[in-house]
Amino acid sequence: MPLLLLLLGCRETLTPGVMVPDRDPSRRWEQVLSRIVDRDGYVDYGALEADRGPLDDYLAWLATDQAWEGKITKDWHAQYLNAYNALVMYQVLVRGRPTSVLDVKGMVPIRGYKFFHGTQFKLGRDLLSLSEIEHERIRWKEMDYRDHAAMNCASRSCPPMRPELYRPNLLQTQLTDQMRVWVMDDERGVRVTNEKATFSPIFDWYARDFAFFSAGEDICSIAALHATGTKRQMLYDLAQRGCPHDYFTYDWSLNESR
């Protein structure tokens, strides 16, 4: 417990430092998002830096009680996904667009700790790190493996960034589509041959999520459910053979649009 309190006390709080807008700025932020995310789901951080006002306004809005008032479960689900992705991009800018988010230095000498654990942000009445948003407010609360396709960690092997906000009334459709986009991506999702499937390490890091949240399906069957065309059939065929698979090496370099 003393060590935990020490680590929490060492966390840096980042705030956009702008006046809270008079009205919800989500639409303006979404317009910027649609311009800075390319067709492959990578981010043009230079363009974002040049037009970061809507991002700062959006995060200032999320820091107010008003942004979270009257929300029901599905509203909070979508809003935490949006907050996570926006805060990742915001921190990339604040940290000077590092070569990798793992290289952000802090008092704790663990790669990635400063970016994901050692920095906190105000959301409503709470101060939360990216790790706490991911695990406490999304994973453990929603128990939906599709969320792993929806959260982007600013790295080249992360699932593609979606060029729009998640919306409560469209969330289930958006999550299913985002899972399809991710699985069909040979570089960041799943590659398939007749002999085996090669998965993103996210399927390994969160193996319990994929198994438990799907009621025990193997990852070939899960991926097949969201794949299309030949890849879908090949994954089902592999599932029938016990799902032979391995994992590709994760590329943590910044997901800068090229």
Keywords:
mainly alpha; 2 domains; 3-stranded mixed β-sheet; 47% helix; disordered N terminus
Summed up, the helix count is: 13
How many structural domains are formed by the residues? 2
Order of SSEs: HEHHHHHEEHHHEEHHHHE
Indicate the overall shape. Answer: globular
Q: Distance between termini?
A: 45 Å
Largest β sheet strand count, sense and barrel closure: 3 strands, mixed
* Fraction in helix: 40-55%
- Could you list the spans in which at least 5 consecutive residues all have pLDDT below 50? 1-8
Radius of gyration: 19 Å
What portion of residues belong to β-strands?
5-15%
Helix/strand/pairing category: mainly alpha
Kindly report the spatial arrangement of strands forming the biggest sheet: 1-2-3
What's the β-strand tally? 6
Give the rounded overall mean pLDDT.
Answer: 95
Would you spell out the secondary-structure blueprint of this structure?
Elements lengths: L1 H8 L2 E2 L12 H11 L8 H6 L2 H10 L10 H22 L18 H4 L2 E5 L2 E4 H13 L4 H4 L20 H13 L6 E3 L4 E3 L2 H4 L1 H6 L6 H8 L2 H12 L4 E3 L11
Parallel strand pairs: 1-2, 5-6
Antiparallel strand pairs: 2-3, 4-5
Helix pairs in contact: 2-4, 4-5, 5-7, 12-13
Explain what the structure shows:
β2 (119-123) and β3 form a beta hairpin. The longest helix has 22 residues, at 73-94. The radius of gyration is 19 Å and the shape is globular. Residues 1-8 have low confidence and may be disordered. It contains 13 helices and 6 strands. It has helices spanning 2-9, 26-36, 45-50, 53-62, 73-94, 113-116, 130-142, 147-150, 171-183, 202-205, 207-212, 219-226, 229-240; strands spanning 12-13, 119-123, 126-129, 190-192, 197-199, 245-247. The protein has a 3-stranded mixed sheet. Strands 4-5-6 form a 3-stranded mixed sheet. The chain has 2 domains: 2-169, no CATH class; 184-248, no CATH class. The chain is 47% helix and 8% strand. The protein has 258 residues and is mainly alpha-helical.
